[in-house]
Design brief:
Mean pLDDT: 91
Number of helices: 14
Radius of gyration: 20 Å
Structural class: mainly alpha
Low-confidence stretches: none
Oligomer: single chain
Distance between the termini: 21 Å
């Protein structure tokens, strides 16, 4: 899934004119971030289940603090790219500051740091889950609430995409323009809640059923032309793919290292891509060479970071970070 995110941003098929291939590529890579959300919820609930009841909110708070720290650190890492883009756009200092604050609080991305929205969406989702858990609301009911928010996010996208010039619609579109922009940020809450639900309710379904479900849903997803309907179909498609992955017993210590490696790749790759296309072309460029170079150097850089952290803290300590 981390490789899929790299592919989304570097677009290796930009020169491919085969509409079927492009559709399959777009549909499969779009699974990546929702998959991350579900995995986050799944692993969070696993920690909660293995802890004492009174420690539940402490675990959620700890995870929230980790996400906040990651968001602040990586926002700082990518801040120079945002500054460079504002300078090229001839923004006034005040306008640049206001845009950055708006994107930092409501959108979760800036120039060439689009992957940060995952962290911001997770932060808001964890705040909501923490509040609901403190109110003694169970996982199943949280999922229902999250589903309602998911539907609202679809409606927000419908409002943004409509050509209706009704005064209320135009007012809502203006509000969205200066805040979240679209409904994407709200969907992390649903997918994380879904992951938590999957850990609680182990589904006794055979592996081939997940394969069949994913195959059918993916075919439907590739056929759908309407973007809003596609967003709805994507949810069960990702869910079936995630459940299929949980049925594959590949756990080992190496899996923990791979998980750490994928995390570093996810956060590093946009800087690496920016450096590559700047040195090679002098302007933003997409294609196979950008994808392969970004992937290879992301693996190397991430491997060095993981190795140094393991050397500093030891494997047993590092696997719990």
């Amino acid at each position: 899934m981390a490789i899929c995110v790299i592919a989304i941003h570097t677009n290796p098929l930009i020169q491919n004119n085969n509409t079927i291939v492009l559709k399959i590529f777009d549909c499969f890579t779009s699974i990546a971030v929702p998959f991350f959300f579900i995995a986050s919820g799944y692993l969070l609930q696993m920690k909660i289940q293995h802890a004492a009841p009174l420690e539940e909110t402490d675990i959620i708070i700890l995870q929230l603090k980790r996400m906040l720290k990651l968001y602040l650190v990586w926002s700082a890492v990518y801040f120079p790219l945002a500054v460079a883009e504002y300078a090229r756009g001839e923004y006034s200092l005040l306008k640049a500051v206001l845009i950055y604050i708006k994107d930092f609080v409501f959108v979760g991305q800036h120039y060439n740091s689009w992957m940060l929205w995952y962290l911001l969406s997770t932060i808001y989702a964890l705040i909501a889950i923490l509040f609901l858990r403190k109110s003694k609301i169970k996982t199943e009911r949280i999922l229902v609430i999250a589903l309602i928010i998911f539907i609202i996010s679809i409606l927000i996208d419908a409002i943004k995409m409509t050509d209706n010039t009704n005064s209320i619609i135009m007012l809502l579109k203006t509000f969205l323009k200066y805040t979240i922009g679209n409904g994407r940020l709200l969907r992390g809450f649903f997918y994380i809640s879904l992951g938590m639900f999957f850990w609680n309710k182990r589904l006794s379904i055979k592996r081939y059923a997940f394969i069949l479900a994913f195959t059918c849903l993916f075919i439907i997803y590739t056929i759908i032309e309407d973007e809003l309907v596609g967003t709805i179909i994507l949810a069960p498609c990702v869910a079936s793919f995630f459940l299929l992955s949980t049925e594959v017993n590949i756990y080992s210590d190496r899996c923990i290292i791979l998980r750490k490696l994928s995390t570093e790749m996810y956060f590093l790759h946009l800087w690496i891509w920016t450096i590559y296309y700047t040195l090679m072309y002098g302007e933003k460029t997409y294609g196979w060479d950008c994808f392969l170079a970004t992937f290879i150097f992301s693996v190397i850089a991430s491997g060095i970071i993981v190795a140094l952290r393991m050397k500093r803290s030891g494997f047993d300590s590092y696997q719990n970070i």
